[in-house]
Amino acid sequence: MKTSKFTPGRYCLAVKRSRTGRGLFALEPIPKGACIIEYTGRTITDEEWLKSRSRYLFKVTKKKTIDGWDKANMARYINHSCRPNCEIDIHKARVFVMAKRAIKPGEELAYSYGEEYFEQILKPIGCKCLKCVPEKARRRSR
Ligand SMILES: [Zn+2]
């Protein structure tokens, strides 16, 4: 198979406990700009999209949405961050998680879920990402 910018490099990743439940962590260094993982799932139609209550939806084209609910989709464990180390790239109606900067082993992967998600879901409950609740502040409050 031909490789491209969008061929996920087989980086060692693991689902581990994080501050907000579970998260996806890098177990080895990942260079800036690398394609880390594809966000996979079932393609659903607009009608299904309107009825869906999945929290793992990605609109990839006007007519196509990917529902990444399936546990086989490891990328679903990636949490939101207001200062993320990953970013989403939608390419040919597929969703890829790319390294926004160099990532060190042991770092949790995160990307910004977007303003709409932040306003509707995270703001009311309070965002717990590293930028909003720094590790030091958390330790002090215990
Ligand atoms: Zn935040």
Descriptive notes:
With 142 residues, the protein is of the alpha+beta class. It contains three helices and ten strands; from the N terminus they run E-E-E-E-H-E-E-E-E-E-E-H-H. The strands form four sheets. A three-stranded antiparallel β-sheet has the order 3-9-8, with no helix packed on it. Strands 4-6-5 form a three-stranded antiparallel β-sheet. Strands 1-2 form a two-stranded antiparallel sheet. A hairpin with a 2-residue loop joins strand 8 (86-91) and strand 9. The longest helix is centred in the C-terminal third of the chain and has 11 residues, at 115-125. It is globular, with a radius of gyration of 16 Å. The relative contact order is 0.19. The mean pLDDT is 90. Bound molecules: zinc ion (ZN).
Quaternary organisation:
single chain
Task: Give me the number of helical elements.
Answer: 3
Largest sheet: 3 strands, antiparallel
Amino-to-carboxy terminus distance = 51 Å
What is the mean pLDDT? Answer: 90
Radius of gyration: 16 Å
Query: What structural category arises from helix and sheet content?
Result: alpha+beta
Estimated helix fraction: 10-25%
Unreliable stretches (pLDDT < 50, length at least 5) are: none
Choose one word for the global shape: globular
Write down how many β-strands occur, each being a DSSP E stretch of 2 or more residues.
Answer: 10
Bound molecules: zinc ion
Helix and strand string, N-terminal first? EEEEHEEEEEEHH
Give, in spatial order, the strands making up the sheet with the most strands.
Answer: 3-9-8
The percentage of residues in β strands lies in 25-35%
